[in-house]
Amino acid sequence: MKRATLLAVLLGMFVGVAFAADSKFTAVYTFTCNGNPNLRSGGCPDGGRPVSIIIGSDGNFYGAAQVSMEGISEPNGGTVFSLTRNGTQKVLHTFTPGPNKNYPDGNIPGPLTEGPDGKIYGQTLFGGIDNCSGYCGDGVLYRVNRDGKDFQVIHEYCSQANCADGQYPGALVVGNDGNIYGTTQGGGTGGTCVGFGCGTLFRVTPSTGAYEVLVNFTSTNGGVPSNLIVGSDGTFWGFSIGTTDVSVFHYTEATNALQSFPVSFPLIDGDLPSAPIMMTFGSNGSLYGLYGIYAIDGVGVFEVNTDGSNLQLFPFYTSSPGRGTPQTMLLASDGNFWVADENGINGDNYGDIVTLSPVDGSLIQTFDSFSTTSPLGTFPTTLIQAPDGVLVGSTIQYGKAPAKQFGDGTVFTLNAGLPSK
To answer: What is the 3 state secondary structure string of 194-227?
Structure first.
């Protein structure tokens, strides 16, 4: 969802920025597609464009690759895969068109999580049922064993009238009670914000696979919700964006209580910022995220208390003319924020990994090793940290490939010397 943004924070130019060497990176696995590398058109048997990486309880990587073919105007399919640290990859599930070409098991997978039952849970952007009233094919929620067995569609979104069960799902998280939780950015019964509603907060019970909507967001309780993050006490936090305001919301699963705290983001010409792009907790307990300004290149860090007070907007860390397109933000074991920026902060258009200060949002260092000829590929999107301190990420195009094939993204590691988690 695009929204107009804030209009006044000075662009920051920071000195002493370090650019890291390629030797810190390792391309663990490259997704390859069959066909002419110049045309970049052909089938991708293992999937292409990996957009989600998690570390399973067994120490292996698990992820989702968005497409099964390149070179068509509307990419479809995708895979769920496992990957060892030494680069052994296995396809756990492939999303196929089905006899009616409607992708009944889902189409274009997104972020994953591992449930307390050891199964991999995920959602797709499209696919599923095609016989409901209103908007259909709005994705599915599924699970699969870590060995690829017993793939199961748990829920098909927009399967109820007017998408009362939710529409446009986000990422999934695990609660202290052993259940799976998530939000949708449309649907529900809370009034019209996007599509049929303002979104929902839902729960999945792993033991039964039951799907239940717990909260219907409305324009009066904050608006459309972001993905959930889990606080130190196991309760859930997020941002919600309404027509005229932004709020922090807090959900407690034990009491099914939702609290909403308005945040005084300034309005420019009556519009809200594009912030918050994403959100994470800092070591001081405050919430942090990234914001942009409509029609002005740049991205900056903001900080706010959990009750919505004491908002601070730090200057842009990007340098003109690069805008930056951040996709993942995490608090790493060195106490700094690490961001996977898909298009790069300096206008190189191939992406980079940057380190940001939680004190003032300034740029500490840039890892600028992505290109069409790099083994890492281009456009980093995912970034997580392994228990040993090594960062793990993915790119969604290019990478080294054999003759008559082309790379369609990689999984890589970045050993930046960070302490263990």
So the answer is: ECCECCEEEEEECCCCEEEEEEECCCCCCCEECC
DSSP assigned state of 25: E
DSSP state of 418: P
Q: Is 396 left (phi over 0), alpha (psi -120 to 50) or beta?
A: alpha
Q: Is the pLDDT higher at 174 or at 241? A: 174
Give CA–CA dist 236/239, Å, rounded.
Answer: 11
Instruction: State pLDDT tens for residues 10-52.
Output: 223 222 333 344 569 999 999 999 998 888 999 999 999 999 9
Token pair of 417, please?
């010397």
DSSP element (H, E) containing 407: strand 405-414
Angstrom distance (rounded) from CA 343 to CA 358: 22
Establish how many alpha carbons lie within 13 A of residue 342's alpha carbon, considering only the half-sphere containing its beta carbon: 12
> Pick the residue with more confidence: 3 or 195?
195
Q: Which long-range contacts (CB under 8 A, 24 or more apart) does 269-272 make?
A: 269/4, 269/7, 270/244, 271/3, 271/4, 271/5, 272/3, 272/4, 272/5, 272/241, 272/242, 272/244, 272/245, 272/246
Pick the more confident residue, 297 or 317: 317
What are the structure tokens assigned to 412, written together?
Answer: 């890589």
Whether the CB-CB separation of 420 and 387 falls below 8 Å is answered with yes
Number of residues written out for the chain: 421
For residues 103 and 268, the model is more confident at 103
Q: Tell me what the pLDDT averaged over the chain comes to.
A: 87
Can you spell out the DSSP letters for 290-326? Answer: EEEETTEEEEEEEEE-TTS-S-EEEEE-S-TT----E
pTM to 2 decimal places = 0.90
In angstroms, rounded to a whole number, what is the distance separating the alpha carbons of residues 204 and 158? 16
